[in-house]
Amino acid sequence: MPRKKIATTTNADIKDSIETMTKALSDLNTKVVIAIDSYSQAIDSNNQFKETVDLELYSIDRRLEKIEDTLIALQESNTITREHASDEQLTTIHHAQNNNKDAKLKKEDILAFIRDYGPSTDEDQINETRKKLGKYVRWASNDIAKTILHESNDNKLPSWKKMSVKDKEILLEIVRQEAIKIELPVNRCSNDWFVTHLVYQCWRNKSKYHNNNSNNKAGIKTSGGSNNTESPMETDEEGTNNRTKETQEDQKGKEVKEEWQKSMN
After folding, report:
1. Where on the tree of life does the source sit, at the highest rank (predicted)?
2. What is the DSSP string of 34-54?
């Protein structure tokens, strides 16, 4: 029976196998490197894309904020325009006595004005508003009087007619602004009759009261009736108490004036 041939592996075959394996490993390594590079590039590209998106989102947020600010500004402007138009449509408030500057403004007239145009129809609130308004008139008058007397050589207060235009306007504007703060639409009054009447009557009583006291201290006799005329802003009892409080109210009047001056700057 013939003997089978035994396969033998030569060094050449081993070498060829090693070279084939080496080449395969090299090709695999190249593919791995290429894959890693591609993955790295993809990551870098993704990071760049993310940064680009973030920048765009930030830009969009800023634009949205500007749009929102613009819309708010337009809304506020539109509101102001509507309010202004509404104010223009409101009727002017005329004096019951045809704006007669010499006609006295009675307590009932003041209460009626507050009741018709003020923030409340409750009688207690109406009377409280009248008292507040009276305080503002006295505070402002006290402060102006103090300023005038400081510059005066004879310790006398001028009558309303002889009072300087500047002092009148300051006094009227202080009271006007304080009245508006408590929701009284005095700015709608024709010729500013409501505030003018209040300030005029308060100043008339104050100047007469002060000048008579000054004359009495100097031993000078004065003619005319009593100067304790009741103000339409106060009752007899309130008037007596208020005249004793004028010194204490000087400081408050100064504060009201300073607050008004700040608001005008």
Report:
1. Eukaryota
2. HHHHHHHHHHHHHHHHHHHHH
Rounded Cα–Cα distance for residues 135 and 181 (Å): 14
Domain boundaries, the chain: 25-89, 107-264
- Rounded to whole angstroms, the Cα distance separating 250 from 143 reads 6
Contacts of 157 (CB under 8 A, 6+ apart): 145, 148, 149, 206, 207, 210, 211
Q: Is 253 helix (H, G, I), strand (E, B) or coil?
A: helix
Please list, in sequence order, all residues whose beta carbon lies within 8 angstroms of the beta carbon of residue 140, skipping any fewer than 6 positions away.
Answer: 171, 174, 175, 178, 199, 253, 256, 257
What distances in angstroms separate CA 213 from CA 31, 37, 75, 265, one per listed residue?
A: 114, 105, 58, 37
Q: Rounded to two decimals, what is the model's pTM?
A: 0.54
